[in-house]
Amino acid sequence: MIAWTIYLTFGGAVLLLVLPRALARWIALVATIAGLALGSVAFVATPIADLTQFRTIVLAPWVPALGMNYHLALDGVSLTMLLVTGISAVSTVLFSWDVEHRQNEFFFWLLLVVAGCYGVFLSADLFLLFVFYELVIVPKYFLIAIFGSTNKEYGAMKLTLYSFFGGMFVFVGILVAYVSGGSLDLNQLSQFEFSPQLQSWAFPVLFLGFVVLAGIWPLHTWAPTGHAAAPTAGSMLLAGIVMKLGSYAGLRVAMNLFPQGFEMWSKWIAVLAVIGIVYAAAVALRQRDLKFVIGYSSVSHMGFALLGLATANALGVSGAVLQMFSHGVIAALLFAVAGRMIYRRTHTRQLDALSGMNLSHAMPFAAFAFVVAAAASMGIPGFSGFAAEITILIGAWKTYPVAVWIAGAGIVLVAAFTLRALKLSFFGEKRAQDEVTKDTAVNRKEFNPITIPEKIGACMLMLTTFAVGVYPKLLLDRIMPAVETMRFLK
Amino acid sequence: MSYLELLKLASPEAVVVLTALVVLSIGLLAKRAMSACAFVAGLGLIISIGAILPLPAHETLFGGMLVISPLTSLFQIICLALAFFTILLIQAEKASRHPGEYLALVLLATVGLMLLVGSEELLMIFIGLELLGLSLYVMAAFDKTDVRSAEAGLKYFLFGSTASAFTLFGISVVYGMTGTTGLAPIAAKLATTPIQPLLAVGIVMMLVGFAFKIAAAPFHLWAPDAYQGAPVPSAAFIASGSKVASFVVLGKIVLIGFAPAHGSAGWHAMAAGWSPLLAALAALSIVIGNLVALVQSNVRRLLAYSAVAHAGYTLIGFVAGDREGFSAALFYTTIYAVTLVGAFAVVGIVRRDTGGDNFSNFSGLASRSPLLAGSMAVFMLSLAGIPPLAGFFGKFYLFSAALHAGANQALLWLVALGLVGSFVSLYYYLLVLKAIFVDAPSSGVAEPMEHGRSDFLQRATVTVLATAVVFLGVMPNVLASRIVAAIP
């Protein structure tokens, strides 16, 4: 049943190629809502006991000669990721409601990304997982290069090449696992004892290859550039789901297959993660472009997810998965406000220019949404960001107490740059009316009102982050048991 | 053996030769009978495919001069199909003045392919090579109104004839040392005697000749000019059919004929033999092909350099040197040929509509013709190795076969090089797609003209080939299992 998330989204993409333009956004909306609905039904209907193991849902031979199967499976971790994919996808379509330029093509690429993400989260066959993983990358290129804004061709190419750079290492890691383990099935391979010597080099190759996509320092520079260049929908999908592909696959594949290699390298991952948290936050503090601020904040937040993975205990890893969910929602909301609500109306993202516009009065709803997103991003209790980060830090306390201190300092920096961005963009100094018009050639009274689809999308994201923040047990109950059965914990 | 029986076994080749003669005479009688000639030629190829199917599964004639096995039958069919698609492309060209002669040459080259694929004897292989080569030289130079075509033909001819000389010299040395020209007897002889220096010279000479045919660096210098200057169908044929057959026969020579002289190309375990030699060719091809392709601004030239790189990838399968490596290499080269015919079909249409094949001629293709743009995207991404297209599975198969061969992932260095190469290649393939999808149509490019029925045929060909590339990527088993089953 849940496998239909993949088929329906792909089906929607194919329909977009043949059906007329008038239907495009509706097809995209129906396809993404169907995906979200399937995910939600599975979330409610699947008993928690069934989510502890990576349980097969579809298994069909694909290329028997090479041992490839079309093998999908589900556990608590992948279900959580499916849910955030669905939520981000629906809100992305809602925030792309008024895309006019090459509409069919736009939604086609968008649905391909979403379908690929569903595929990665459900794959239980290494080859299949890699197929979906790489399938996501090329649509991103077109999404950014055709529909993007600032410096789009550069940003798109940089992002694509970085992704494939990581993909190249992943390919090596997968081949090595396949050739020495004799299978491509994740469940079988996670029983196989790879030699420690092999694990010691195969793990970093595979893990680093994956987490390039999660924006690990120092391979993160594609993220801010790519996010800034992407259209709003592109940034929302990128930060919301695609970055999670890297950390999810790192957990599902690299850590599960090579537990000894993970043990050898985990402290170095923690080091990189902590550097990423602090460095990206510090850089975000100095950015002038609002999208760059959010782009760097994504790198910083994904640093927390990586730190959680590096803790190698159930609490930290579960926190990491929760952070992937939480950041998926928060980043989508931040980019939606910055890209769609602000940029579409003011045609600038420069914080200096925005600070003169007094946007909190011109766009009260946008201001409200941004305040919520900022609060969640800073880790204010009551929002999902807090729940996730506190879980990670408690987990990390057991393994790397020093890292907790430094990451704690990182949280202060995150709060600092978020508040700075919030103040400059929405609550800037009110200037004289004539000065405003001279600065930006835009009269604030002419801003189009926030549309209904935008409001629905924003409310959906805000409600999600709030619900998870108030009651994180909802997700943790499903994540924790699944994480506890993974091999690297034993 | 009676002649009748021989004719029965050689009927596929005979049909194609007969068709060539018929096409030639139609061309003589009616000067501008393009459609009639093409129709007859296509029909002949289909009949020939039909003649292959009822042949017995295994038959060896005259000490391997003519061999019938599942492998030869499969690849003869593939070569005939590639020739068929090439013929469909011909009508995209401005009506050439001698369609009969051109099509007859295509058919004769096809006979060359079939002989190459269907023989396990050095003399016959050489005859096939020459028949193929001579036809292709003329085909490359066929457009008499274009100086580039003449350049392409001349370069191809000069390099090709030198390479043939090398091959022939190598064959004569091998014959002198082993006393036989059949591949299986050569292997038997090599297994019992140590390899003499002179024999090594012979092997190297032969490999040089084939490296030329498959455009492996450093014997690739003819390729850019031939791909760019030759008429589009000729270039497509050089890149597809000629390449597939050359890889099949090269594989047979090294894996059957010189099997005992395999050597080893492992990183810490290099041992003299042909496999380190092929590994060096592969490594050089991957590096040179990909790096030089980065700076091209002409799509056909870019395809030529990428062809060098792809020859390198394919050779990795032979370096692995076992059954799995052989089938992976054959799968890869088949996929590659199908993809390139499709890519050249798009180039042909774009060239006819806009008068050139630089990046600027492709810009804005997505708005002019979404079908062609989408198909070109499929072809380019398959070449770059993006799932779920056929090229990706091909690469996975090749590299996993290479890692399987030899203990301790000895060929990891070659695989790593191949992966870095395909990472680099993504950049230039994306440049083509950027021109097509992102760039605005350049001024000065004529509006697409009205096309008649003939255009429909080319578009249908492109669509069929693009569908095939997607299908073989999603369902690689259809082809892969046949190739695996056909290899003894």
What is the count of helical runs of chain B?
Answer: 22
Q: How many H/I helical runs of chain A?
A: 22
CA gyration radius of chain B, whole angstroms: 21 Å
Q: Please give the largest β-sheet of chain A.
A: 2 strands, antiparallel
Strand order of the largest sheet of chain A: 1-2
β-strand number of chain B: 4
Backbone CA Rg of chain A: 21 Å
How would you summarize this macromolecular structure in one to three sentences?
Chain A is mainly α and 490 residues long.
Structure notes:
The complex is a heterodimer of chains A (490) and B (488). Chain A is mainly α and 490 residues long. In chain A, 75% of the residues lie in helices and 3% in strands. Chain A has helices spanning 4-18, 24-45, 76-95, 103-122, 126-135, 137-147, 152-181, 186-189, 196-211, 222-229, 232-257, 259-284, 290-310, 314-346, 351-355, 359-362, 364-378, 384-399, 401-426, 433-440, 452-470, 473-484, and strands spanning 55-63, 68-74. Chain A has a two-stranded antiparallel sheet. In chain A, a hairpin with a 4-residue loop joins β1 (55-63) and β2. In chain A, α4 (103-122) packs antiparallel against α5 (126-135), α14 (314-346) runs antiparallel to α17 (364-378) and α14 (314-346) packs across α22. Chain A is globular and about 65 Å long. By secondary structure, chain B is mainly α. Helices cover 75% and strands 2% of the residues of chain B. Chain B has helices at 3-9, 11-29, 34-52, 70-90, 99-117, 122-140, 147-178, 183-192, 197-213, 222-229, 232-239, 241-257, 274-293, 299-320, 323-354, 359-362, 365-368, 370-384, 390-404, 412-438, 453-474, 477-486, and strands at 59-61, 66-68, 264-265, 270-271. Chain B starts with a helix and ends with a helix. The mean pLDDT of chain B is 86. Chain B is globular, with a radius of gyration of 21 Å. At the A-B interface, α5, α6 and α7 of A face α19, α20 and α22 of B.
